[in-house]
Write a structure and sequence with these properties.
With about 270 residues, the protein is an alpha/beta fold. The protein folds into two domains: about 5-120 and about 250-260, NAD(P)-binding Rossmann-like Domain (Rossmann fold, 3-Layer(aba) Sandwich); about 125-245, 2-Layer Sandwich (Dihydrodipicolinate Reductase, domain 2), CATH 3.30.360. It is about 30% helix and about 25% strand. Strand 2, helix 2 (about 40-45) and strand 3 (about 55) form a beta-alpha-beta unit. Helix 1 (about 10-20) crosses helix 11 (about 250-260) and helix 4 runs parallel beside helix 6. The two termini are about 25 Å apart.
């Protein structure tokens, strides 16, 4: 049996995932449909695929697929997510921060037999954090360091009139909760929300965000204190060439998450 996958958004992440499926890298997975803001451009992008998927409006993806991968701006999250979950399908979101503004969708999924499956994205250790959450977690602290270009245009910086051009030393831009960070940096800190959902929630998970001209990779360090384990984990992600706000590993994480759906052997919690 083939699991039918649809992808919303064919930017750097969505296109990489679409190509992997089309090239047969994921056994038992087929690319059924895609949607993006510019339908004509999307048709050109998939024209050379071995099996070009249907190009449909965002709201119709659920009709064509069992699993819908969300790679679109957070402003359009609900318009995609709600029809998918009401149809009893599986949503695989990358705009994880948008779940905090639309957490009623979890109840929608439960009522209609849908599922929300969050891939690891650009972060590590979610399996260990989930395991510690079965006991007692005392604290979760995240420190994020990114090249200034990877943070440019964030709403929090725009609202404060902060310009990062020409900085020569690390600058602490934000210190607060994962919920606050998701609002201020919606394109940058989905990792913090993923960590919070795996652990003690977005209001107890703390994060510091640094613009650091001395780093060339998006770097996240997570420290978890719990009654079962103390975790200290660091990941250094190479920024995507197409979009420096995200890591190259993000698309690979989605591919790995899709592979788990049909794999005969699944490793990890």
């Amino acid at each position: 049996m083939t699991v039918r996958v649809a992808i919303a958004g064919l930017g750097a992440i969505g296109l990489a995932v679409a190509r992997a499926i089309d090239r047969g890298r994921l056994a038992g997975i087929g690319l059924a449909a895609v949607a993006s803001r510019d339908a004509d451009k999307t048709r050109r992008l998939v024209a050379d695929f071995r099996a070009p998927p249907a190009v449909v409006p965002l709201g119709e993806l659920a009709r064509h697929a069992d699993v819908v991968v969300e790679c679109i701006p957070a402003a359009h999250f609900r318009a995609l997510a709600e029809p998918v979950l009401r149809a009893g399908k599986t949503l695989m979101p990358l705009s994880v921060g948008a779940l905090l503004d639309h957490d009623d969708l979890i109840a929608v999924a439960e009522a209609h037999g849908g599922r929300i499956v969050v891939p690891s994205g650009a972060i590590l250790g979610l399996d260990a954090i989930r395991a510690t959450a079965e006991g007692r977690i005392d604290s979760v602290q995240i420190v994020t360091r990114k090249p200034p270009a990877g943070l440019a245009g964030a709403p929090m910086l725009a609202a404060r009139g902060v310009c990062l051009d020409g900085i020569t030393e690390p600058v602490l831009l934000f210190s607060g909760t994962a919920r606050e960070a998701a609002k201020g940096f919606p394109a940058n800190l989905n990792v913090a929300v993923a960590v919070s959902l795996a652990g003690i929630g977005p209001d107890k998970t703390r994060i510091d965000v640094w613009a650091d001209p001395g780093v060339t990779r998006n770097t996240h360090t997570i420290v978890v204190k719990s009654d079962s384990s103390d975790l200290t984990m660091t990941i250094e992600n190479r920024p995507s060439v197409e979009n420096p706000r995200t890591g190259t590993i993000t698309a690979l994480s989605v591919i790995a998450a899709l592979r788990r759906l049909t794999a005969p052997l699944v490793v990890g919690t």
